Amino acid sequence: MITDPKRILVIVTGPTAVGKTSLALSLARSLETEILSADSRQFYREMRIGTARPRDEELQLVTHHFIGHISILDEYNSSRFESDALNLLGQLFKDHQWVIMTGGSGLYINAVCSGIDNMPDPDDTLREELKTLYAREGIGSLRSKLRILDPVYYSAVDIANPKRLLRALEVCISTGKPFSELRKNNPKPRDFEIVRIGLTRGKDELYQRIHDRVDRMMMDGLLEEVERLLPYRHLNALNTVGYKELFPYFDGEISLESAVENIKTHSRRYAKRQMTWFRKDKNIIWFHPDQVTEILNFVREKSL
Q: pLDDT tens for residues 173-205?
């Protein structure tokens, strides 16, 4: 049982394929603690290969949480994750001074660190109007409206995610205020300290890692995984890089080579959007993933 009152949540974040899993494992083993995933797509048990879920041998090295704990059929969001993660942290901090949380989903990381803002619920009529617009004109119409109503949030949000675009538009229209402005509520108090570690690599190095990982995914059976999930392609969970690019291949619209190239292209763009999001957080201290000793020393110093 830990008696030292100082509890520290160590955040390990950064763009896709930068090396978060390996670094988190090294820290967790050195600090003798456990890992929480804050990768919103690794939550789904049916999506293993395309989400770059830690390998079985890695999961056996350190206890992981929020990996494959829900189904693509389940309703889940950042608010529920905040509640689930805080409840688990309350238990883990009884036996561990440090706990590691890693992932590239900034919204879910912020939910645990700062809490979810209390947003007003729009009326059902507005929600249905926006859904109809999306069904009739596609995601481009949502992007255009959000770019006008809230350019700040537009520059940070995953513009390939219609669910987040719809939610932001609902709030903008129903309140007459930018969604980004209403998201700036004061952080909720936490009974633990937070250390934010960001991992970064040079652009060429990162892009090569992205390309290599996509090739490994294909060799590991990504095509077969996506084929099994074709009946569920309409779900928001499947609107994910690595899955949605293969749907046109199965529809006979593009070649497999083109589909794989699209995965690589969209992964690079996603990594760029992630870095845009994370660079706005001035509390993140940046390291190269190879600086394991430096990162470990930095984390330990925070407990003194």
A: 877 888 888 776 678 899 999 999 999 999 999
pLDDT tens digit string along 272-297?
989 988 998 999 999 999 999 999 99
| Cα separation of the two ends of the chain | 19
Delimit the CATH 1.10.20.140 region(s) of the chain.
124-182
Q: Residue 128: helix, strand or coil by DSSP?
A: helix
Architecture, CATH, for domain 124-182? Orthogonal Bundle (1.10)
Region 8-116+189-301: CATH code: 3.40.50.300
The closest alpha carbon to 33, from 47, 56, 55, 12, belongs to 12
Half-sphere exposure of 114 (CA within 13 A, CB side): 16
Number of other CB atoms surrounding residue 34 within 10 Å = 18
For residue 229, what are its two tokens?
A: 């999930």
Task: Outline where the chain has alpha helix (H).
Answer: 20-31, 56-61, 78-92, 106-113, 124-137, 139-149, 151-154, 162-175, 179-182, 203-220, 222-228, 247-250, 256-279, 292-301
Rounded-to-10 torsion of CA 139, 145, 146, 151? 130
237 DSSP 8-state letter: G
The pLDDT tens digits for 234-251 are: 888 898 999 999 999 999
The predicted model scores a pTM of: 0.83
